[in-house]
Design a protein that fits this description.
Elements: E1 2-3, E2 10-13, E3 33-44, E4 48-59, H1 62-82, E5 90-100, E6 115-126, H2 132-141, E7 146-153, H3 157-183, E8 186-195, E9 203-204, E10 226-239
Antiparallel strand pairs: 1-3, 2-3, 3-10, 4-6, 4-7, 5-6, 7-9, 8-10
Helix pairs in contact: 1-2
């Protein structure tokens, strides 16, 4: 669905020929111009989704702690592959091994890990944004410690942005002709055009709570549309 925002900032500058001195020639007069800013918002359905997982293990022995983490990671990869996530779309974002000494009196209010703590953060990207719930359930069934944020994106960001740019240029052209008609002048050609816009980024969802068992009901997440915004400033040469 395309949604063009016409709340544009319009600046019209009509440089009229007013001779300041007799020796001023016509060629030295500044050109008459119209400057407008065109804007557009174009909505796109996301075609990919990324889920982040955390795998945390601990043991008083470093080898056992890392081995347990490796086993949990391998189980996660296997489940993700079975859910349709390609090997190249599974990425380890961070890996950390720290030692947390046992306190003399542990605080029962906090679930703290002691000994050698191994933390691995993994992200998985699926080309099926509507099926991201299955990817989440795959991670849960693999025994991940946490399911982090879910983000949606557009695979062809550049193509989506180009569509928004074209709509913004059309908006600028419409404004310029409306101004020219109102001022009873004629648009000759474009003198300059430039853009200052941000391409769409992923849309995060709130983090999920720590998970210890598989969900009894399949997880379903309905992704919303991603809005791609573009803004262009165009200067038009005009004549009477």
């Amino acid at each position: 669905m395309n949604r063009i925002t016409l709340a544009a900032t319009v600046a019209a500058v009509l440089a009229m020929a007013v001779p300041a001195a007799a020796q001023t020639s016509v060629s030295e007069r500044p050109p008459a111009v119209i400057t407008v800013t065109g804007q557009a918002d174009v909505d796109h359905a996301p075609d990919q989704a990324t889920v982040s997982f955390s795998v945390v293990t601990n043991d008083d022995n470093a080898t056992r702690a890392t081995s347990a983490n490796n086993s949990a990671y391998n189980a996660l990869v296997a489940k993700l592959r079975a859910a349709g996530v390609g090997a190249s779309q599974i990425r380890t974002d961070s890996y950390d091994v720290t030692f947390n000494a046992h306190p003399a009196e542990p605080n029962p209010q906090y679930a703290q890990r002691y000994g050698y703590v191994v933390s691995r953060n993994v992200s998985a990207t699926t080309p099926n944004a509507a099926g991201v719930g299955a990817v989440i359930d795959a991670g849960i069934s693999a025994g991940v410690t946490n399911v982090g944020a879910v983000s949606f994106g557009i695979k062809n960001n550049r193509g989506a942005y180009n569509q928004a740019l074209a709509a913004a240029v059309a908006d600028a052209d419409q404004q310029a002709h409306a101004l020219a008609d109102a001022a009873h002048v004629r648009i000759v050609r474009i003198l300059s055009i430039g853009s200052e816009s941000a391409q769409p980024g992923p849309r995060p969802l709130p983090q999920f709570a720590r998970v210890a068992v598989a969900a009894p009901v399949p997880t379903e997440i309905q992704p919303g549309a991603l809005t791609v915004h573009a803004s262009v400033t165009v200067r038009y040469l005009i004549s009477p």
